[in-house]
UniProtKB/TrEMBL annotation:
InterPro entries: NELF-A_N
Stretches with biased composition (Polar residues): 378-387
Xref: Pfam families: NELF-A_N
Biased composition regions of type Basic and acidic residues, renumbered to the chain: 325-363
Protein name per UniProt: NELF-A N-terminal domain-containing protein
Residue stretches making up the NELF-A N-terminal domain: 16-142
Highest taxon in the source lineage: Eukaryota
Region span, Disordered: 186-295, 324-387
Leader peptide range in chain numbering: none
Length: 387
């Protein structure tokens, strides 16, 4: 079923063959949901249920922006004429925000409440006969106790009771008709398999199977073909006995020079003398190549979301590598500066030690009387008076 919205011409498909709530959920927008809300009453039952399920697949980033329109659609579905649409809306109403389904259907639907009461009464009266799937992985001691269980459930034996019966219509095919169609398909497959496994003929190609005859080989070329063009009055070349004999070898008659070999031509049967060599068959062009022998082109599908994520990760890794390289350069610079400072301090200490050592050596070389220069400076000068 396809519903067309009169607002902007948007379509909502709910056919059994092409319906997908996940695909439609990713295409929903605020404008489209607004059009759906305005024309919700004009849609069919299947389209309404499909839209209710499709809203579960709205993108997480769009939930807050579309929440008001989604609540309006669920409110319109709760007041719908069909009870199934009302129940579906109440079950899915808070699924996006609370992340759970409201399965207490009997609280707001009397008809569903009656069905639930009947099922509970039948279970309490007859018990459950089916084991949950996870019981296959649990031992007998680990399986929880069931308060309402039948004898089959407790004995762990398969049941042979008929639980349902298929409905048949006039359009259904009988079992004999299905078997006949199946046998015809088997015969057709066997015939195709035998045809593909037919042995090749002498010419290297599989022969054509006649209706009542053996394999047909390649026909003989007509006499007017190029093989017998040198002998127009004969249908075949003369026998080898009629060919002229070569001159006998002698000491005075040189032998005829042999033509150079044509590579791997000696590996094949030689043609009779005088018979022209058939030219090689032309290679088929691209225009005459059948479609079955064309090389299939490969088409690569690209997901834009994955491509964006991959580019983002590559950019982050590149930035991290650049930062690490810059940090290593800074560390090397600091180490070099620290090494230069230590060398400078060492040289300064060595120079200070050398000066101190030279000063001590100079003081040790002074005599006990003191420095003669200082003594001369200390003696007073007596001026001479000329009389």
């Amino acid at each position: 079923m396809i519903q067309t919205l009169p607002g902007n011409g948007a379509t909502v498909s709910s056919g059994a063959s092409n319906w997908s709530s996940a695909k439609l959920g990713h295409l929903l927008s605020t404008e489209l949901l607004q059009d759906i809300h305005e024309n919700f009453d004009e849609m069919g039952k299947a389209a309404k249920v499909g839209i209710l399920f499709a809203m579960l697949y709205v993108r997480k980033g769009d939930i807050m922006r579309m929440q008001s329109v989604i609540n309006k659609i669920y409110a319109a579905a709760e007041n719908d004429d069909h009870e199934w649409i009302q129940v579906t809306s109440r079950i899915l109403k808070n699924a996006l925000t609370e992340r759970r389904l409201n399965t207490r259907v009997e609280q707001w639907s009397p008809s569903f409440g009656d069905v639930v009461d009947k099922v509970e009464g039948a279970v309490k009266q007859d018990g459950i006969s089916f084991h949950p799937t996870e019981y296959a992985l649990l031992t007998k001691e680990a399986q929880p106790e069931c308060p309402y269980a039948s004898k089959v459930y407790r004995s762990d034996e398969p049941t042979h009771d008929q639980h349902f019966k298929l409905n048949t219509t006039a359009m259904d095919k009988s079992n004999s008709d299905r078997q006949q169609l199946f046998q015809e398909l088997l015969k057709k497959n066997d015939a195709n398999a035998r045809r593909s496994m037919s042995p090749p003929t002498k010419m290297g190609r599989p022969g054509v199977m006649g209706p009542n005859g053996p394999l047909q080989s390649r026909p003989r070329p007509p006499p007017s073909s190029g093989m017998f063009r040198r002998y127009p009055n004969a249908t075949q070349p003369p026998p080898s006995s009629m060919a002229p004999k070569p001159a006998a070898k002698s000491l005075f008659i040189p032998s005829r020079a042999r033509k150079p070999s044509l590579g791997s031509a000696s590996n094949f049967a030689k043609l009779p003398q005088g018979m022209p060599v058939r030219p090689p068959l032309p290679s088929p062009s691209s225009d005459t190549t059948p479609k079955g022998f064309l090389r299939q082109s490969r088409v690569q599908m690209i997901d834009f979301n994955e491509n964006t994520t991959l580019e983002k990760n590559n950019a982050e890794e590149l930035n991290a590598a650049k930062e690490q390289l810059q940090a290593e350069k800074e560390a090397r610079k600091e180490m070099a500066a620290e090494k230069r400072r230590l060398d400078k301090d060492r040289k300064r200490r060595e120079a200070e030690e050398d000066r101190q050592r030279a000063r001590e050596e100079k003081l040790s070389n002074i005599p006990s009387g003191g420095d003669p220069k200082r003594q001369r400076r200390a003696q007073p000068t007596n001026p001479q008076i000329n009389t």
